[in-house]
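Need residues for this backbone.
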């Protein structure tokens, strides 16, 4: 049975009670109004006839009225003039816009859409432009390296640009995030890197106190800044820069460069002792050059991240690419996670994530998603979002992993002995080594058992010059235009074929007209053409199958067999 609506009828007793309450309320309101003295304003009685100088007073009153009216009219005229001026300006602006649009269309017709638009701040070209500004302006360049994979954070193009610039530019390596790597491994890396460039061990503050954080802590639960705001190695680096500025007898500019998420802005905040630059887990937070004054003699220039070249390996692109995991496609993220898992010890990954044995990275992601409750409809594990989360953990400061330095020292071809001596000139290397030892001892390091062994992919190639950058959007645009051109050519060919058929066979005119009246999306093809297409499809299928072979054949090093 259907539910009936509740009745709005009331009993007489209740209705009368409500009416009585309303009457009482109105009475109360009237009484309060009387007390306040809100009465109707009385009319002005005017000047009495018996008053002396009545005529003079009336004249003065009329004069006042006239003045007020004149003032009102003047104000009205001024407003009208202002409105007219605004309208004229708007009309001029609109005309200029229309002209610009017309000129733009003409120029695009002549030179197929070549426009000189200002670069978007998020574009790779603008990142390159800002990075080049920093490199040109700086006297000392700090290349920030992640201590977990220092070799993968080095960019040979940047190092070559600094060392071969011709000026008296110096390049220092800053080994950041030393608190995520075992002590022995840090010492090995410092001994390896100091033979090429002066290297500073550093642990930056991940979260700095400022006004905004203080306001948040007042409202919500208190945040413990003891561990996050601790930083080591800042005194050593500041002393090194100050000594160099004294040898040069001038104020120096220090450029901080590196790949995404290595901690460039965090190092500047640690050197300043407060939050001077924006920091975040997302990649590419810094989008333009920022100047921070440390003291009278030193300025620090924060730069956007170096853009990883597309020719790099899948591992390098996964860890060092500027594109954020949230915005990137799922296929690229899955490929990146696949490369990371293949370059790690399987047993250590299982121990860290506390999951059972898995055959491939997809199974690893599904097991992890099930464990953490990341499921889609029907209890299906959400592999894509889990892959993004894992990649964020590896690029951020959550996972403690380390890589071993190369067995033998082989400096890159641009680093000759003369260049190494030039880079080391002007710095007190003995005191630097001693201070590095002190910072390494002061920091709490994880044990090798609790961290994951990682095989580095070597140096990561980067694009510094703006001309060499390939924007993803422009590539897709070119692909689409080429596809459209191909479709147009095919349509023209079909039309010519149909015209030939008309000349040969007059009986087939109705069929040709039918094909012309058909929808533009559907096309009729000859049986010979369909056979050729089938053969082409078979070829593409065979190619795709050959590409989808297991990755065991390509991998030169298998960690699962060599791990003890």
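Answer:
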């Amino acid at each position: 049975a259907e539910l009936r609506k509740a009745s709005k009828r009331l009993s007489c007793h209740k209705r009368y009670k409500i009416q009585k309450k309303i009457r009482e309320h109105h009475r109360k309101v009237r009484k309060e109004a009387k007390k306040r003295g809100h009465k109707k304003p009385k009319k002005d009685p005017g000047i009495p006839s018996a008053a002396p100088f009545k005529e003079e007073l009336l004249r003065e009153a009329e004069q006042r009225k006239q003045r007020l009216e004149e003032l009102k009219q003047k104000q009205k005229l001024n407003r009208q003039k202002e409105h007219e001026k605004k309208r004229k300006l708007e009309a001029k602006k609109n005309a200029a816009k229309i002209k610009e649009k017309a000129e733009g269309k003409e120029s695009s017709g002549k030179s197929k859409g070549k426009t000189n638009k200002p670069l978007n701040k998020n574009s790779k070209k603008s990142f390159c432009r800002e990075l080049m500004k920093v490199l040109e302006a700086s006297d000392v360049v700090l290349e920030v390296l992640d201590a977990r994979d220092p070799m993968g954070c080095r960019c040979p193009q940047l190092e070559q640009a600094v060392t071969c610039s011709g000026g008296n530019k110096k390049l220092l390596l800053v080994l950041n995030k030393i608190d995520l790597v075992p002590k022995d491994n840090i010492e090995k890396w410092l001994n390896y890197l100091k033979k090429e460039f002066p290297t500073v061990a550093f642990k930056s503050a991940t979260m700095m106190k400022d006004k905004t954080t203080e306001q948040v802590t007042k409202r919500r639960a208190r945040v413990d800044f003891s561990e996050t705001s601790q930083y080591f190695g800042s005194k050593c680096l500041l002393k090194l820069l100050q000594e160099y500025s004294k040898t040069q007898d001038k104020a120096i500019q220090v450029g901080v460069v590196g790949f995404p998420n290595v901690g460039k802005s965090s190092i500047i905040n640690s050197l300043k002792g407060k939050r001077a630059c924006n920091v975040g887990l997302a990649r590419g937070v810094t989008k333009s050059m920022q100047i921070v004054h440390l003291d009278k003699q030193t300025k620090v220039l924060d730069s956007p991240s170096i853009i990883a070249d597309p020719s790099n390996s899948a591992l390098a692109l996964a860890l060092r690419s500027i594109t954020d995991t949230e915005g990137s496609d799922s296929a690229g993220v899955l490929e990146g996670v696949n490369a990371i898992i293949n370059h790690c010890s399987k047993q250590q990954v299982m121990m860290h994530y506390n999951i059972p044995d898995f055959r491939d990275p997809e199974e690893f992601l599904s097991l992890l998603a099930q464990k953490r409750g990341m499921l889609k409809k029907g209890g299906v594990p959400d592999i894509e979002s889990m892959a993004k989360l894992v990649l964020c953990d590896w690029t951020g400061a959550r996972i403690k992993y380390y890589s071993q330095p190369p067995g033998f020292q082989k400096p890159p071809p641009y680093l000759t002995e003369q260049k190494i001596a030039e880079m080391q000139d002007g710095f007190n290397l003995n005191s630097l080594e001693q201070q590095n030892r002190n910072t390494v001892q002061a920091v709490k390091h994880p044990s090798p058992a609790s961290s994951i062994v990682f095989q580095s992919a070597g140096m990561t190639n980067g694009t510094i010059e703006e001309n060499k950058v390939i924007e993803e959007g422009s590539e897709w645009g070119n692909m689409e235009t080429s596809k459209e051109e191909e479709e147009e050519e095919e349509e023209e060919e079909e039309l010519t074929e149909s015209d030939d058929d008309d000349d040969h066979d007059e009986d087939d005119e109705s069929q040709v007209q039918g094909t012309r009246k058909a929808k533009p999306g559907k096309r009729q093809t000859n049986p010979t053409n369909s056979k050729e297409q089938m053969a082409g499809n078979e070829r593409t299928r065979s190619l795709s199958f050959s590409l989808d072979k297991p990755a065991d054949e390509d991998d030169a090093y298998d960690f699962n067999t060599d791990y003890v």
